[in-house]
Write a structure and sequence with these properties.
Blueprint (H helix, E strand, L loop, with lengths): L4 E2 L6 E5 L15 E7 L7 E6 L6 E9 L5 E2 L2 E11 L3 E6 L7 E4 L8 E6 L7 E10 L6 E12 L5
Length: 161
């Protein structure tokens, strides 16, 4: 996760897991994925990555989410989203948020979600960077530790991985 950032807000632990066929959305033994462990209601810490974007170019956004693991229960809900910024490095003014805008992928109740790909989407005018982030939005009401896995994140001009 060297090119990814884990924020300091929220709770829980974010970890990169080495690739195993059983824990990968496409059974790839080479890619690995991210696991977030959260005790309580949430939200958890986010992991994110910033990427440059261009005006008037359409982008596709995708991710796959998996709830639970072999030793623990799943969480109520996980999300991945895109936020657009008017300066490089995801600084400056946030121009648009995925909240309610179609740029959010939510896991509700399945094993590995299918690899959702939303789009195409055109960034707001003057956007020069975009931050893709994922987190657990709702943990558990009983205070037990829950687990969620994230894989196949995509922000691209192509609608395929």
């Amino acid at each position: 996760m060297s090119s990814w950032t884990v924020d300091s807000t929220g709770t829980g632990e974010v970890a990169w897991l080495a690739p195993t066929v059983d824990d990968d959305v496409s059974s790839c033994p080479f890619s690995g994925h991210v696991e977030i462990a959260l005790s309580g209601a949430g939200p958890s810490k986010r992991f994110s990555q910033c990427a440059p974007v261009a005006d008037f170019v359409q982008y596709y956004f995708g991710a796959a989410l998996h709830n639970g693991n072999a030793t623990g229960q799943g969480c109520e809900q996980g999300e991945c989203d895109v936020n657009w910024f008017d300066s490089a490095g995801c600084t400056g003014t946030q121009l648009g948020s995925s909240t309610g805008g179609g740029d959010t992928i939510q896991w509700l109740n399945s094993d590995w979600s299918t690899s959702y790909i939303n789009g195409p989407q055109t960034p707001p005018a003057n956007a020069v960077s975009a931050r893709v982030s994922c987190y657990i939005s709702e943990g558990t009401s009983d205070g037990n530790t829950c687990y969620m896995h994230f894989d196949k994140l995509l922000l691209s001009t192509s609608n395929s991985y």
